[in-house]
Structure formats: C-alpha cells, structure tokens
Amino acid sequence: MSWVKRILILVTITSLGLIVANGLKAESVSVAPTYNLKKIELVDQGFTKLLENENFEYSYKKHNGVFQIKDKRNGYVWKTGIDHDYDQYIEKNLEIFLEENPTATNEQILEVAVPFEDQMNNSREGIANSLVTFEIIKPSNIDGTLTQIGTSSKSFKTIERSGKKVVTEDKTKSVDTDVLYQVNNEEGHYLLDVSLYSVDLKVKIHLYFKDEGLNIVINDNEISGDDSNNIGYINVMPFLGAYGGKQLEYNVDSNEWDIQKLKTRNDGYALVPDGSGALIEFNDYNAKLSGYTGDVYGTDLAQAKSEESIVYSNVPVKNPLMPVYGIAYLEQKAGFVGYAKNGDEHMQIVSRPNDSSDSYNLTNYNITFSRFVYNKTYSQVYNQAGNKFTSMLEDRNHFDLNLEFNFLANEDANYVGMAKKYREYLVTNKIISNNNKNSNSNIGIRLDFLMADVKNTLLGTENVVVTTISDVDQILNEVLDMGINNISSGLYGYQDGGVTLGRKSKPDFINAIGSKNAISKVVKSMNEKGVDISLALDYAQIVEEQISLSGNAAKHVNGWYLKVNDNNKTFIEKLYYAKPSKIKEWVISNEKAIRKIAFSSITYEGFTNQLYGDYGKNAVSASEALVIYNKLLNEISNNYKVNALTPNQRLWNNVDRFLQTPMFSSQYLVETKDVPFLQLVLNQKIELYSSYVNFSFYEDKDILKMIDYNTYPSFILTKEPSYNLSSTNLSHFYSTEYQLYSDLIDKVYSKVNDALKNVISKEWNNREIIDELVVNTYSDGTKIIINYTNNDKNYNGIKIKALDYQIIKGGVA
Amino acid sequence: MKRIVYMVILLMISILSINVSYASSATTYTMTIDSKGNFVRTQDAYLPETVLTTLGLNKPEDMMFDDNDMLWIADTGNKRIIEFDTFTNTINKVIDSFFIDRDGEIETYNFKEPRGVFISNRGLYVADTGANAVYRMTTDGELIEEPFVSSPYAPNKLVVDNRGNIYVYGEGASNGIVQLSNKDEFLGFFTTNKVKLTLLQQFYKRILSQEQFDRLAIRSPQTFSSIFIDKNSMIYTTTASTTEDAIKKHNMQGGNIFNNTISQPDSKDIYVDSEGIIYAGMSSGAIYVYDASGNYIFSFGVSNEDSGKLTEDIAGIFSKLSAIAVRKDGNIYALDSEKAFLQSFSPTAYSKGIYNAIKLYETREYEKSIEAWDEVLRLNQMSIIAHNNIAKSYLQLENYEKAQEHFKLAGNRDGYSESYWEVRNVVIQNTLGAIIIAGVLVYLLSKALKLVNNKTNAITNFMEPIKKPFRKKLGVDLLYTFRVMKHPSDSFYELKRKNKGSLLAAIIIYLLTFVFFIYYSSGKGFIYQMVSAEDLDLTALVLGYFLLTILFVVANYLDTSLHDGVGNIKQIFIMFSYSLGPIAIALLTTALLSHVLTYNETFFLDLIMMFGSVWTAILVFLGIVETHDYSGKKAIKSILMTILFILVIIIVILIVITMWKQLSTFIELILKELIRNVVG
C-alpha cells in the first residue's frame, strides 16, 4: 500500500475511535445517601407543632405546605409563605357548605367563606405559599418563559366519598405536601420529599431548625428526574417576609367575593448587598418598576447570554460581594438575615415591587428572596456573520444549596443587627480572619501612582511616561513631610508597555520608568519610613496586541473568546479575559520575579472583582476558579500583605487592604437609602479604602461619608499632567497631577483622621438616624455625629454645624 | 359663588415616599469633546438627587418653573395640570377642570389632552392637543379670555412673550411655529424648519418637472419637538429626528443664530436658565448643556445608541424623557413619560465652576476668568472648554505665548494660528535688525573670500574634499535630477541613450521622495497637521504611495504594446523617478515651512505644492514622449490608457483578495468543525 493510503486509513480509524469513545463517556453519578426516615403525622387542619427550642416554635401546615416560625422573644410570627388556603379550595368548600346548610346565618357563611387573594390565580397562590419554587426551562421552547412551579402548587376538585361531597387535592395537578419526615432521629433535622407534577423532578429538601433560626439544604445528588437538567432557577421562600397584598372578602349580598380590602401594611425594608448596601423600603407602587436583581460576585461571564459584553454609556451596576440579604419590620422589631453557606457563587438576590415591570411579580406584594442558578440559556453563534440560535448548558451547575436564616428580634432587628450577625458567622467559620490588623494610631491613606501607558505612533506604539520612580520617591517624601505617615501605595504601569501592554508573567522594568535597581532602592528607603509600596497589576484583562489569545484567553460556553467591547477607550477597544490557570501561573511567576525587591505587599486586580469560568481547553468552572484564587492568595499572604481591588467574600480571608470600597449603591429606583452594610460587616477585620477622591468624591459631604463609613481616603496621582495620557487607554483619568492635589490630600486626610483616629481599633456597634443626624456608636461608647444637611443642628445640647461632625468621647456610661 | 373645581392644598398629602438620598454617585458618565473632536469622559457635572416615583403621574409631557420656583407639570394622561413644590416635595394644586364666567353664566371645561404648559405673570397657558385649543387662565382655574380653538392643527407646546404674543407649534403643522397676537389674531408663521433635499433628490429636482417632482416622496420639513422663551423674549427650539441644527436660537425674523449645534437625533425639550446656559433633553435620557452661544459644554445620561438596552430601573436612567426644567439654583428636573417619575439632578462643584468661569469671561473680567478656569482645570486637566477659554482670555490680555500654549492643548488650530502670528510678529520685529546686519556681513564675507580665492586658491582647495563625493558617479547621477528639471526633453533623451543617470540613483530618488512624503503627511506644523501622527494609518500611506507609483510604471509599460512605445520598464522607472524631483522638493519645503507659517499664509504653501505637482506632471509627460518616442497626442492617449490599466489592475487585485478571504474562512471553518467533532 502506498504511504498516502496508509496515512488515510490511520486517520480514519483514529477519528472513528475518538468519536465512539466520546459517545460512551460515562456520566458521573454520585450516589445519594440513604437515611432513616420517620414520617411526621400531620393534623388535617391548621399547623402541626414540630419543635420548640429556646427562641422559636416551629410548626407546619399540611394543607398548603407553609412553615410557621414563632419568635418567642418578640412574639412575631414568620411564615415561609403567605399562608393562604387557596381560592379554589375555599370556593368549593363554600359550595358544599351552602348545599348542606341552606339556612346558614351570615356569620356561619363568613366563617367558611374566608377572603380570597386578589391579583392571584391558582398557580400564583401555589407559588406564594411555597417553601421552594422551581423555574424550569423547556428545551422545546427554549426562548420562552420558564415554567414556574412550587412545593405548594395545588389544584382542588370536589369528589364524592362515602356519599358525602368532599374537596380534595387533584393529585395529578398538585404537589403533595404531606411529605415531611424526621431524619435519622436527629432533633431539628427534617426532610421534605418533594415530587413535582407536570415536570419530572424529585427533590429532597433538608430543614434544620436551630436556636438561631432555620437552615435549608438541597443536595445536588438529591435532585432527580428527567427534568433535573432543565432546572433554570431554584428560589427559596420567595414570600418570606413579603409586604402588601390585597384581599377579596365575601359579600353575603351578592354571593361573590368582591369586597376589596388591603391587608395590613407594616413599615419595613429589605436589605440588599448592592454596593455598600441599600435598603428597599416597602411601598405600594403605582408605576411598574423593575425592582432589583443582584448576581452575587457578578454573573459568571462564561455562562452569560453572549460572549461579548458591551460597555454602555451608563455606569455599570455594582455586584454584591457577599451572598446575604435581609428583611426587617420596624414597629414589630422583627427581622432576619439570610446567607448562603454554600452555592454562593450561583446565588442571585432578587427584590420585586408589586406589579413589577418585567412581569415576574404580578401580585400586590413586595417580595425579596434568594435564587440559585442551575441552568441558563445562551446564544450560540455559529458563523462569521454572527447568526445565532439559543442553547442551554449541556450539564447544569452542580452544587449543594445551603441557605441559613437567622431571625433577629428587638434591638437587633435592623440592618446593623443583620451586619453584626453576619459578621459573627464569617468569623466563626473563618471566612474572615479575626486578628485586628490595625496597629497604627493614625488611619491609612492610599496613594496610587499611574506611571506609564502606551499610545499609537506612526510606527507602532510608544510608552507615555507620566511618573518615574524618582517622581514617586519625591512625591511620597513630600506627603510624609505633611505629617501623613501611614501610607500605602500601588504602582500602575510600572513596566514597558505600561498598564495596557505590560507583561503579565513577570515585570519588564525599563529605565525610563524605573529600573529594577532604582525601584529596589526606593522601596527600601520607603520601607524604613513606614511607607508600603507595591506593584499593581490587573491579571485578568488581556489584549490581543500584548499576548496571543490562543492558550491564554478564556472561552465562553459557546466556544468564542470572552470579550469586552469598549468603544469609550481611546486606544485599544477589544479586551479579553485570561484563563484562570494562566492567572495562577502569572501571579506565581510575578511574585518570584520580584522576591529580591523588598516589597511588603502586592496589589491584585482583575480576578478579585470578576467572576468567570473557562470553557476552553482544560476547562475550569467559575467555582473552581474561586477556589484557585483563594489558595493563591493564601500562599501569597504568608509572605506579603495583600491589597485587593473590591474583592469578593471568598478572598476576604487573605485580604489586608480592601481597595475601591463601594461607597454608594447602584441607585436602583426601588432602593430608598444607601447604608454602609459592607463597611459594618468588615469593620475591624479588613482596612477599607474608598474610591478615588479625585473623581467626584472630594466635596464636604463625601469627606463626611468616609468618616461615616469608617473608610479611609485614596487618591491616584501622576507627576505630569494627565492630559499627556489623552491618547492612551487611560484617558478617563482626567485629573491626577500631584501638584494640584497636594492641598486636597492634606485637607481630606486631616479631616478624616481627626475623626477616625479616635475609633481606629474600636468596634462599630450601631448606626442610627436621629433627627436627620447620623449617629455612629462604638464599642466603648464613643459616638460620632454627622450632619449631612445644610443647617446647623443640635444633638443632646451639642451643636453640630452644617456639613460637619462632632465626637462625643466614650468611656462614660 | 364661584365653584371651585380644583383641589387646593388638600393635596399637601405627601403622596410620596420620597427617596431622599444625598446627591449620590453618578449612574451615567458625563461626556465632553476632546481636542480631536471625540467624545471623552469627564468629571461628573450632575449627580442624581431625588427620584419621585409615586406622584401618580400618567404620561406627563411638559413642565415649567414659575417665578416662585414652583414647578407646573402637564400631567397629560391624567388630564390635569399640577403645581408642585420641589423644595418640600408636595403637590400644591391640581387643576383638572376650569371655567369661564360670562356675565354670571359659568361654563366649565375639562382638559382633554393637556400637552403644553406655560406660566408667567400674564397667566397660565395650556395647549390642549385633544381639544385643538389654547387656554389662558388664572392659577385658580378661571379663564381670562375665550379659549382659542384652532383646527385643523393640534397645538402641542407653546410659549408667550412679555407682550402676550403666543408662539405655538402643533402636530400636522409642519409649516412651523404659529405666532398669535395677544388678541388671538393669526400673525403668521414665526419660523419653520427648512426642507433639506438629499443629493439624489436635488438631482431629481433638476431633471423632473415640478409636477413629477411633487409626486415623489413627501418632503416635509421636520417638526419642532419643543420651544422655550427666555427673559429677553428670545425663542429657542428643538427639532427631533435630526442632528443638523437640532437646537436653534431664533432672531426676530425667525432665523437661526446658532451654527451647527452638537446633539443627538432625538432632542425632546429645551430650557434656558437666567445666565443663558442652555439645557436640551434627549428622549433617550441624555441632557446636553451649551453656553449662551450654542457651544457644547458637556452632556450626561444614556446616549440614544444605548437607549432601550438597559432594562433595569435605575435613578438617572430614563425610558423616555419627555421634559426638563431648571430651577433657579441650578438643579435640573426631568420627567419620564413612560415610567411616570420625576428625577432631579444637582450640579457638582465642577459644573458650577464652569458656569462661573463662563460668566466671568462674558462680563469681560478676563483675569478672574482665567483664575476660575484654572479651578476647572484642576478638576479636569483635559477640559477643552477650559483651555479654549483661558486661551481666549489671554488673547484679550495680549499674552500671546500663553494663549498659544492653551490653544494647542485645546486643539484649536484657528486660535493657535492667530496667537502664533502675534508671537512670530514680535520675534521678527526683535530679530529683524540682527538678520539684516548678518545678511550684510555674509555678503561682505563672500566678496572677501572671492578676492582671497582669486589670489591664493585657498578656498578652492578647502572646498575640494567637500565637493569630491559629488563628483563620483552616484553623486553626479543624483544631481542630474536638477538638470532634468531645467532641460527635460534633452535630459530624458540623454537618460535613454547616453548612460546619464543610473538605476541606483533613480531608486534612491524614489525612496527619498517616499520619505519626504511620509514627513509631509505626518510631520507638518501643528496648524497644518490636521490628523495627529498617532492617528494616521501608516499602512494606507505606504501602500498608497508604492502601489500607485509602481502600478503607474507597470501599466505604462503594458501600454507600450498598444501604442508601440519603445521604452522598456527600466527606462520608464528611471524616467519616472527623475521626474519626481520637483514634487519631492515641494513636499519637503511645504513640510518645513508649515512649522513657521500661519493660516494667513496658506496660499503660499498651496502655491508651492501646486507648482511642484504641475512641474512633475509636465516632466512625466515629456518623459513619456521622449522615452517611448511618442507624439504629443499619442502621449496623452498613452497616459489615459495607463490610468485605465491601473484601475483594472486594482479591481482584479481586490477581487482576488476577497475570494481568497472567503476561501480561507471556509477552509478554517471546516478544520474547526473537524477538530471540534473529533476531540469533542
């Protein structure tokens, strides 16, 4: 046989072999555990008491699958659903009652004809009662809306039983709620064995009733059924703590339920971790608003709708950095904080006002709940012209959903109480470290430097240097002379190629910016003066002009590279994301390369504030990426302090300085107030630095905000005027020249330090608004009172001028 | 017994759970224009302050502040007019019906579709589109005069000057803005938008008869989207669906004072504050701010390209902005007709600084104006307005060097030219004396050297080593260019026959011209270098030069077979290169001179370039005649054919490139599919 023939046969056999092997890929199945289950006998009408402990009484109602949690500390009763008995059931029951008792009095009739829920059809009532609801994607109609069904979805019919008419569940159109078991005889550990109809899905929901509240767990291997891969979302207790509602009362004259009545309104709010934190005060809205949706840690870019994200003319919304939310009712002094102990990266926090504009919540309630993403649809582009069809993930996300709810009472039932409770959980579970990192008596200040970036020239690119290392030395010395000595600094664009084209694997120092020796010298001299200089690099954002995409760029599930299209940028508009494995490689090699220079900290950006997996070769999921990054920073933090840009909760254990702390929320219309929830949670655990004061954060009220939020100031500086950067990708840093900022640095630092140095190692215990004044209380009783208004005000006889603050020293009872 | 048919202060019921947040961080970027005319981000000019979502509005279309800073809103969908107090966030008054007292007989009216509202001390005017009427009433709802009913067009928005003349525009009246006297007499059309014919339509107009042309597509002028009158009774209008002169300020005759205002094609409402600063709201939610002369300052909000892509309801982001109004303290209020909310924005120190600095310049306090603009620069070192205005102030103060510096930063070439002229003037005046003396000295020196040379030949010996390289073959060949320029026909003959000149020299001259060309394209002085070097497309320049010149040579050679030319390709190339002499010199001279000339001397540079180009063209023509032994007529034909050949070759190359691209994409796709399916 000729060579050609031989080769052809070899290729054919190999390809066939591979194709066959592919098809026979064994599905990884984990075996579900077996339990010793004891069925709980439930009463037919009303609630069955399950457990009573120190703070709570837990009960379950078989008829509609609603759990009731009575808080003994304040008498408030929480229900996992609206606890409605279904219009269908009530109506059919009344029919039977009227037939059997034609002479019933009005009072007797009204006892049976309890109010209907207005603005709710049968399926919505099912959802509103449910402990857990499921949104299923229909592969046959993949672009359509998801099918919603809950653990309490039911339909009723009238049947004859032993001669009598009785209303029962239509088993084929109802989810059985008589499925509560106790597990392994463990106290407080229950199981709901749910079987849905109309979709083939069986789920085991674990409930743990504890001294602090309730824990819900859905294990990945306990979700079964043919439709188990089609689950889009699982929502947990969507109507827990819901506000609002309209009822229809029975009219004995017209024999109809037509008397509209609003249910009791109690003032309260939902707390969402939007930016620094925001309160959504409950309201009856006339207009249709979209509400709030937050993707914890950001939406996984590799599973997003499209591989391309376009930068629009609006400021991007902030992503929640922690998987937590809460609801509080002020007069009743009752509240809860809910957080994910597992599955956090797949969590969304959803809040919808009544009649929401996206038609998700067409009821009259304001609801806030958490939701977990299992499978998503995305656009599969299949040719160069950009034509696409919609597809869904071949294999949904696998994780164990674990949500904990702590109920709060009395003084703790507000967002401050939620923050403190959540902080307690983070410390106990070592998610943040407990050592008080601050040893200085003055607050810190962050001074970042932009050293260089590149611009286009006739024949290629050219470095535009705006700050050299000796400029850095000179400026820092000047700042030290001002009396500011707790300085930390990050150098951006320290190498050839500047910020945009700088090498990621190891620094490429050049003399024009600073040679390795020069930088070494400055770092050493600054270390002696107590100033911490670090190299700052964005490890995730890469560009084609600097590094080849193949083997380095992360891919979307549809096979295309993850891309950002930003035509606000002056020089390079197309940006890509680096593979998580490459990021790990570069962080390690960078650290190795700079080991000889005596840096005491390193500044990280890119992978700290973005979430994405990689579906390319050697795929890494977003969850795995988070684990990789955490391990990475664990190693680094053994020898260096870690400065991270807006890091998410998974990295907090190793972060020493939290840069660009969000000081506002994203300003959703339903959000009524910004609160420093993040700052309260991290108080005394991580040093927080604000967003750059240079950019619209320099007015008096902004300085007061830093004092209010216990966050330290940060600036970005250059030696040369910033218009030198107008042809580079950094053209949006429109004002950075140190000469213009030296006075402002002094002013801002002195003002913030004068206030905060008094409370620098004291725990922040409370924040209240009294007569338009913000009153922050610290562990030893010290109070800082802040007046954001334009008028002078009084607090307990002390005058606080307009746009100013006062300190009341503590140590006094 | 006046039936009071509106709700008075009963509506102090604060309907609203007001979102009282402190002026919060911005939700959209503020943009301005950089020195190259591109939109760039700048320091936030306005921050979203309060959002009122629960006012109970329904498709509100218009609003206006009165002299007491009370906001009057035309709540169109609810058929009423509201007086709203933006300081306490309460509704003072609601007018949904009104009446007229005709000697005791009272007739009440209701609004049908109130879309325009105007308030002054002459009363409250409402344009009711549904009723085709304009009403003038007191703020208590009593009509001051009979309703003015005006079919067939439906009045949309209106303003009233301080003599009571009403300016109204309506749907269907594309003839412009109707002017009514204070006695409701029709005074005519105040102004109208001109119809702009496209190029194709202009062509049709020439060749078709009027009738035929009229039967073509409708060419109605665009209608106005809003109208505003300032305290001097000057009228401002906005026009939607266009960016050309969308924002206008009208003189008494209705003409447009402004020139080419920058805007988006969806301008919806306009408002002018007491300083003359103009605010234009776009339907997408963007607000553009201009100074009193219509110069763009900055804008913020969602641009019309991005509108509709953002589905979340966030403060400062609009679904459909319908009206804006500016309070005396500078806060901007904006209505969203779809989501029915009222959003307010408060100015930051940055924008307040800019307005203050503009005012100082307009009141001729130039030094204070420079100080104020320096403050603005501190907040945004790239601010073009600041640099421009500082430069203009320095011009007024006759500090030309500073003016020049700032004009350069602002990218203002006209201003730079002007100030540079002054600076150069001073330099010339200062050095003229010295130059004249130097000139005389040089002349005397040269005479003296000649005398010395005649006696001792010292200079000739001294110059020998310098002149030596020029005697070598290459040097001679290069210098031959000058002979070509002076005696073209003879030189070309000699080139062809007598081994004068060489291929090497020709190549050098060719490349040298290329270098000069690049220098000319990228290295001219600031005034003349319209595109900065970093934005130039080097490949286009290189490709253009080499491709066109080589193609010319090749095509001309191909043409010799048609016209029986005798030159071969080497001779054509040599001829061509040597003809490049004049244009090479012109390119170099122009580029060098552009560094020291101003716009006043543009003609000079144009002259040099023209001279060089024409001379080269003549040389090429003569060269073709000589090299191929053509007659004059044949040479012309040859050149025409050459050009045709060039076009054909270019088209062929393009086709081949496109086809190859398709083929390679196809092969790539197949390979990808194969790999994907095999590897899985």
Written overview of the protein:
- The complex is a heterodimer of chains A (813) and B (680).
- With 813 residues, chain A is an alpha+beta fold.
- Helix content of chain A is 19%, strand content 31%.
- In chain A, strands 1, 11, 12, 13, 14, 15, 20, 21, 24, 25, 30 and 42 form a 12-stranded antiparallel beta sheet that branches. In chain A, strands 31-34-35-39-40-41-43-44 form an 8-stranded parallel barrel, surrounded by 4 helices.
- In chain A, helix 12 packs across helix 13 (738-756).
- The N and C termini of chain A lie far apart (100 Å).
- In chain B, 43% of the residues lie in helices and 21% in strands.
- Chain B has 3 domains: 25-347, TolB, C-terminal domain (Neuraminidase); 359-465, Serine Threonine Protein Phosphatase 5, Tetratricopeptide repeat (Alpha Horseshoe); 472-662, no CATH class.
- Chain B has a 6-stranded antiparallel beta sheet, with no helix packed on it.
- The longest helix of chain B has 48 residues, at 632-679.
- In chain B, helix 11 (503-522) packs across helix 13.
- Classes of the chains: A alpha+beta (813), B alpha+beta (680).
- At the A-B interface, helix 1, strand 32 and strand 42 of A face strand 2, strand 3 and helix 16 of B.
